[in-house]
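Human: For the file, kindly provide a plain-text protein record giving the amino acid sequence and the backbone structure tokens, at your earliest convenience.
Assistant:
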Amino acid sequence: MHRHGKAGTGKFRILIVDDHPIVRAGLREVLSRDPGVEVCGEVGCFREAWGAVERLKPDIAVVDISLPDRDGIELTKEMTRRYPSVKVLVLSLHEEFLYARRALAAGAKGYIEKKEAPEKIAEAVRQILRGKMYLSEQMTQKMLQSTSKSGRICRQQKGQADPPLDCLSNRELEVLRFIGKGYSRCRIAKALYLSPKTVDTYRDHLKKKLGLSDNAQLILFAAGHHGYGVQK
């Protein structure tokens, strides 16, 4: 972890949580342009984030939704519960509103896609630090569309190709992501602090909810659907 800020400067302190050094460097460069903020630290995983928050006491954490050891949504949920003064902006490769809704439900004050211009990320941070929520115009529109289609949640529509990911729990989405990355059941268990038997139970739940008949179909689905197999 690298420390950048100094306590007592009167600036808002930002912690970056992303496992890609080049992404962290880009975020640090963009966010540091604002004279009212300082990047006080960077970490690359869920585990490191805890110690960083305790030591650095940031005002806001910019969190990648897909961390190597745990899910960014779970980190957001735990961070906002244990450190309610720390605001969270979630960064994501996902365009689906499903992830934005879950991030906000976990306590995030904003959600922004990584494809957005760097200036938009800086704008999101400023808006959250002013006590407001942040969603892009595109994501806000998706939220309105999702609300108007509330009756469609957790069921497939006629002619709709996508399985009902909305029915999966956050932990099931985590397990699905690790399956898509090629993790074995034991490696998934270690990453999520579960027993291999519990991982098997989650795999069975996933197959049932997604309408898949065997583990081979589950692996193919996880690797190819919604970028699970390529985002990391």
User: Anything to note?
Assistant: The domain at 165-224 is CATH 1.10.10.10 (Arc Repressor Mutant, subunit A). The beta strands are 2-3, 12-17, 37-43, 60-64, 87-92, 110-113, 134-135. The longest strand covers residues 37-43.
